[in-house]
Write a structure and sequence with these properties.
By secondary structure, this protein is an alpha/beta fold. It has ten helices and nine strands.
Length: 257
Amino acid sequence: MIFMYVWRMITEIAKAAQIIGSLKSLTVFTGAGISAESGIPVFRGEGGLWQQYNPEILDINYFLSHPLVSWTAIKKLFYDFLKGAKPNAAHFALTELETMGISTTIITQNIDNFHQMAGSRNVIEFHGTTKNLICTKCHRMVVATETILSDLPPQCEQCHSLLKPDFVFFGEGIPHQAYTASLEAATHCDAMLVIGTSGEIMPASLIPIEAKRNGAIIIEINSDKNVFATEKSDIFICAKAGEVLLQIVELIKTEKS
């Protein structure tokens, strides 16, 4: 039984490498699972953040009416914790695919900036980023520095209104540019590499579905088999993304050498 499982995984990794290596361009869709390998806790499921914190801290109406309560939790979760975290092998492997001549567009649901830190150049941040703060009144954008976050809740230097992280809260829509760019990338890709997402969050979950609808091969890497994997993926590899992507990169290098 174990032998059959291992053999099947090796076969699927080889098939994925062959497909990706033959492409001129690739669209990658990442979720919380890829950053979990950097020690970032996921939101849902066993041990998820929503078992420890009330999700309403990220509800836009609650945030606007209880800014200090929300900001106290937000700073701890998204700024203090991320301060020492770094991209992992999976992020760097995706960058290496790009350096090998595979034009790579990354659509990420994550807000941690890890793809850019690892060197990826074409990243669509579907849910925004922790890197910047935006004024809730004049919409002035500033970089989230330790100085600005030392006095909570932070205020805009220009109009003295409340600053919020430039990522999507519950009750807010997806930024138009990110949404349209993601649909464009999904519509025109030959293959989509889906990494570490449950496929449960709308409207992000529509992106791989759109790719599949337009004929793309769906290759999924997930540490847990989930609903998306069983219904939509052409190739499913149940393992850690860092380990799998490093093998895929090496197989492609061997094929090209």
